[in-house]
Specification:
Blueprint: H1 12-16, H2 21-41, H3 47-54, H4 58-64, H5 68-93, H6 96-116, H7 118-125, H8 131-135, H9 138-153, H10 162-174, H11 181-197
Length: 204
């Protein structure tokens, strides 16, 4: 994937201020729902719909996220953090090759959200936000640890480089945005995994 750019500065002071438990729940619910709605409808999705689906009023949304771009920034950070945390969680629960495959399937969901946010992400590139400098390299590092573990275990072939796998996955982002895009992308991940397993030390 192309290097992840250097978001609007956002209301960082407000974001850093400790929240009451109910306010934290509202904020988390808004971010979770926004990720789903932006993925479904794109960046022009109605903020009123996001608030309604999160079970709060539009005023609550604006108290947490003064601008659409601020909401986008929080959603994007949340998606990156979730994807990176999944690498450790999956590695602890599954064999190295299965953990890698499940993480790559999760990567499809991450890309789907990123596509939904694409317009605002391009706007954020031109601002002074630390969004992209904070998250740059974290996704590739998460993939690298999974690939290297699978190579070391012999569950994927030994000549695999994590950067090549990321390059292959990056093609998903530029694929035509059709109704079957996500299903097709998941099939491509399965095919990629078949290739990574072919010739592995523990194959068969």
């Amino acid at each position: 994937m192309a290097a992840e750019p250097p978001a609007v500065p956002g209301n960082k002071a407000a974001a850093d201020k400790p929240l009451r438990a109910d306010a934290r729940r509202n904020r988390d619910a808004l971010a979770e729902v926004a990720a789903a709605v932006f993925t479904e409808r794109g960046i022009d999705a109605s903020l009123e719909e996001i608030a309604r689906r999160a079970g709060v009023g539009i005023g609550t949304l604006y108290r947490h996220f003064p601008t659409r771009e601020h909401l986008v920034e929080v959603v994007y950070r949340r998606e990156v953090e979730g994807l990176c945390a999944a690498a450790d969680e999956l590695a602890q629960k599954y064999s190295s090759d299965v953990a890698l495959e499940m993480w790559m399937q999760r990567f499809v969901d991450y890309i789907a959200t990123k596509r939904g946010l694409s317009t605002s992400l391009r706007i954020l590139i031109t601002t002074n936000s630390t969004l992209f400098s904070d998250t740059s390299g974290r996704v590739s590092q998460a993939l690298r640890q999974l690939v290297e573990a699978a190579v070391a275990d012999g569950t994927i072939r030994g000549d695999v480089d994590a950067s090549d796998v990321l390059h292959a996955l990056s093609g998903i982002y530029s694929a035509p945005d059709t109704t079957e895009w996500r299903d097709r992308s998941r099939r491509l991940v399965s095919l990629l995994m078949d290739g990574l397993r072919f010739g592995a030390a523990k194959a068969g």
